[in-house]
Amino acid sequence: MPSLRETQAAFAAALLASEEEQAVALLRAGRLSPGERLAIYRNNVLSTLRGALRDSYPVVHRLLGNAFFDHVATAFVQACPSRSGDLHDFGGEFADFLAGFPPCADYPYLPDVARLEWTCDRVFHAADHPPLDIAGLAGIPPETYNDIRFRLHPASGLLASPYPVLRIWQVNQDEYRGDPEVDLGEGGVNMLVTRRDFALQIEGLPDGEFRFLSSLSQGAPLLQAADTAARAQADFELGAALARFVAEGVIVGFDAPRHA
How many C-beta neighbours within 10 Å does residue 74 have? Predict the structure, then answer.
């Protein structure tokens, strides 16, 4: 007799695919055949997970249309089953899946649109954080400033794309009323996603500011982050950037260097 774990595993696998022989053999007959009963569960699971993807990726959904999106979403669900009981955690691999899914090859910008939407989703649900401790920062010896490691707000995200992804995202919002045309040849964009007063904000950043924040987010000390930014943008001003991102609540913490 199969174990409970084996039965559950066979049943879960059959919910996402058509290979149901093993699961059907484990179900007891009732008013509906085992295959019919399994199909009900499968349809409900697929419908729920496709709905979760539509909620997390509304712009991708709009770009692909209902039928094509459902086809892509079903393939994704079968290739990347949910591993969490929280539907908010489902769909993080969708962008990478789109990049390798042959039917989407004609939409090379689509994975980055999905990455932007997933970043927005993560930022919206991220924890809050108090502002930077200015008094504590003022107590750090000036000779160690270069080694300070600043931390970004949990509700912030950075994304760069070679495509005008921000423009694509903007013209596909329900409230947008301007020119819907997008020129893919206009080039890429660096984006900062933040949450302010329970509303998402997405802004394009120059190369220097983007490299600066990216370096800080990866744990680089201040001097290294500033050097990286200056190499990307000759007129980058460290003082102005640092003041702006502290004032806007993007930089909210720091790790002081050890000193004698």
Answer: 16
CA distance 141 to 73: 54
C-alpha distances out from residue 9 to 13, 16, 20, Å = 6, 11, 12
- Distances in Å between the Cα of 24 and the Cα atoms of 1, 7, 31, 39, 43 are 15, 10, 14, 10, 16
DSSP characters for 10-78?
A: HHHHHHHSS--HHHHHHSPP-SS-HHHHHHHHHHHHHHHHHHHHHHH-HHHHHHH-HHHHHHHHHHHHH
Q: For residue range 144-167, what is the model confidence (pLDDT) as tens digits?
A: 999 999 999 999 999 999 999 999
Contacts of 11 (CB under 8 A, 6+ apart): 23, 26, 27, 38, 41
Domain ranges of the chain: 1-107, 119-260
Count the alpha carbons within 13 Å of 21 in the hemisphere toward its beta carbon: 1
Three-class SS of residue 146? helix
The tokens describing 255, both together, are 């790790």
CB-based burial, 124-138: b 16+ in 10 Å, e otherwise: eeeeeeeebeeeeee
CB 23 within 8 A of CB 11: yes
Query: Is 128 in contact with 253 (CB distance < 8 Å)?
Result: no
| Distances, alpha carbon 119 to alpha carbons 57, 87, 229, in Å | 10, 16, 22
Measured in residues, the chain has a length of 260
Mean pLDDT of 96-118: 97
**Cα distance between residue 190 and residue 205, in whole Å:** 5
Model confidence pLDDT, tens digit, residues 231-257 = 999 999 999 999 999 999 999 999 998
User: Stretch 217-223: mean pLDDT, rounded?
Assistant: 97
Q: Indicate left, alpha or beta for 187 from its phi (over 0: left) and psi (-120 to 50: alpha).
A: left
